[in-house]
Amino acid sequence: MQEKSLTEQEMPLTEQEKSLTKVEAAVFRRLLAHLDERKDAQNIDLMNLAGFCRNCLSKWYLAECETQGITMDYDKARERVYGEPYNDWKAKYQKEASKEQLAQFAKNKPV
Description:
mainly alpha, SMc04008-like fold, 6 helices
């Protein structure tokens, strides 16, 4: 009988790896809660300061779901990050960007 070799993804997680995964999940939930509490931190402010925003998190979430074989679409990923449908969040909380914010974004915009 031939032994089947396991790929890295198929290998069982150690208890430490499981614990770290739980920590990372908790940190992600805490980040989402923090962003939810700081609706005044507009996406353009986040992009200009840190180079990522809620939409970036949504795209990363979607990409990882796809990597893990989990069915997800961009709207559902954004709803996970925003805590509600994006268009609802946008109507309630998103402010129009100032000329200065847009200029800074254009200057620092990733290629």
